[in-house]
Design goal:
Cytochrome p450; mainly alpha; single chain; two-stranded antiparallel ribbon; 18 helices; four-stranded mixed beta sheet
Length: about 475
């Protein structure tokens, strides 16, 4: 062997050794919690806390960890860092006081596949594109604009009351029809008169898949462990689901947008929100795909959150007849039986408003907020939330804080009477900082109208068995209820 060959062999061996040592050091640090991070549960090499995060109901475990490690704690998944905010003070410090550095979204491979880059108002990165989408949303969902939609919400709420009266066993389907019809009417000028209306059937089919894709622990964390993106589709069912959801959404919303544009071309508009958005698309720098998903996001967010709130309210009221009676007495004394409640009545119904707050508190629609991302290091006490960290608000944990809400597992609207500080905390169910829900005013109107209607028109009771005994329902099950 020549000296040159020997020299090359030594060089290759040395280079391989350096690479091996570098990889070994890098792998040894993966999953390890850095010293500047808030504390958290012990980590496993490489995986971090991946195996400790429950697939279902992670907000419960996050609350337990919050009790053990503090109101702000950290989790590691590979090299990525998750920060969980378990108190209202932490949320105000990180997401409001430091909103300039905590208003981004983490990259989402699923969202990018399904909806493209930054077309989703809720999931878009903190960018000029997001600002354009947000500006459009503020225009069409302002308090003034939402008051113009009250007639739609009132009419749909009356139909819902009729459906609950005539077909109470199918209450879940009727509630979903209501919420979907309101937002479809507002955004696209298209009603959903029946639960079997084809566009609604298609919407719910793909909406359920989409919600499952976006749930924090329902699929592999491909954004935190990027190599998982390379797994072949036959071993990664999420890839197939993403394709199905994209195709389904494209079909639904292309058809709805085409209907709006054809009406506008005929001069036959009906005043729906997308008419304004289409007319001002150039002003707001919205291209064709942004237009498509602007409406899609409104429909998805507006349909699901309102229906879940009403379904939860029905469950809680049936097991708390004393709450029903007290709220009904208030409604009878203020409104009477000669007319149905209207939106302005809520100002004179403090106990009914407290029922709404308590329903939000005990069972928030989104137990974990849509995640934020830090764009710069954020100091929190003696710790640092690093740039790039994914930040979750544990809304469920905050609303079940024993120090703020005595007997936190009990449905007790009285806790909000004469207590504006507690009521203010409940507003965080709609998010906080610069990314607060754009549809908050429309959602509040639907929630308020239907809460008043339910209490005004119905006695909601538990189902009985064949012997006449009450069947106490599982509060996580929507089936065992009657009117």
């Amino acid at each position: 062997m020549s000296e040159t060959t020997l020299s090359n062999s030594h060089f290759l061996a040395a280079a391989f050794g350096v690479v091996f040592v570098w990889l070994a050091l890098k792998l040894s640090r993966m999953g390890r919690r850095e010293g500047f991070l808030p504390p958290g549960p012990p980590t496993t090499p490489i995986l971090g806390n991946l195996l400790e995060i429950p697939k279902h109901g992670p907000h419960h475990q996050f609350k337990k960890w919050g009790s053990e490690y503090g109101e702000v704690f950290s989790l590691k998944i590979g090299n990525s860092t998750m920060i969980v905010l378990n108190s209202i003070d932490a949320v105000r410090h990180v997401r409001e006081k430091n909103s300039a550095f905590s208003s981004d979204r983490p990259p989402s491979h699923f969202v990018e596949i399904v909806e493209g880059l930054n077309n989703d108002l809720v999931m878009a990165r903190y960018s000029n594109k997001w600002r354009s989408l947000r500006r459009a949303a503020h225009e069409v969902l302002s308090p003034q604009a939402c008051r113009m939609h009250l007639a739609i919400q009132q009419a749909e709420a009356i139909q819902l009351a009729y459906e609950l009266l005539t077909e109470p066993k199918n209450f879940r389907d009727h509630v979903r029809r209501y919420s979907n019809s309101v937002i479809m009417s507002v955004v696209y000028g298209t009603r959903i008169p029946r639960t079997t209306t084809p566009v609604a059937v298609d919407f719910w089919e793909f909406q359920e898949k989409w919600i499952d894709l976006l749930a924090p622990t329902s699929h592999p964390p491909v954004d935190m462990i990027p190599i998982l993106k390379k797994v072949p589709e036959r071993f990664a069912p999420w890839k197939t689901i993403c394709k199905e959801v994209r195709a389904g959404q494209q079909k639904i919303y292309t058809r709805l947008l085409d209907q709006v544009e054809r009406r506008m071309a005929r001069g036959d508009g009906n005043g729906c929100s997308m008419e304004m958005v289409c007319a001002r698309a150039k002003e707001w720098n919205l291209d064709s795909e942004s237009l498509l998903y602007f409406g899609a996001v409104m429909i998805a967010a507006g349909s699901d959150t309102t229906s879940v709130f009403i379904q939860s309210l029905i469950l809680f009221l049936q097991v708390h007849p004393e709450v029903q009676r007290k709220a009904q007495q208030e409604i009878d004394s203020v409104i009477g039986l000669d007319r149905m409640p209207v939106m302005d009545d809520i100002k004179r119904l403090p106990y009914v408003q407290a029922v709404i707050y308590e329903n939000h508190r005990l069972r928030p629609v989104a137990p974990l907020s849509v995640p934020h991302a830090a764009t710069e290091d954020i100091q929190y006490g003696n710790y640092v939330i690093p740039k790039g960290a994914v930040i979750f608000q544990n809304t469920w944990g905050i609303f079940h804080d024993e120090e703020r809400f005595e007997n936190h597992d009990v449905f007790n609207p009285d806790r909000f009477l004469g207590n504006p500080a507690s009521a203010k905390i409940i507003e965080y169910v709609f998010g906080g900082g610069r990314r607060v829900c754009a549809g908050v005013h429309l959602a509040k109107n639907s929630i308020t109208l239907n809460t008043m209607h339910l209490l005004w028109g119905f006695n909601i009771t538990m189902t009985r068995d064949k012997n006449g005994n009450k069947i106490i329902p599982d509060l996580n099950n929507y089936d065992d209820v009657r009117f």
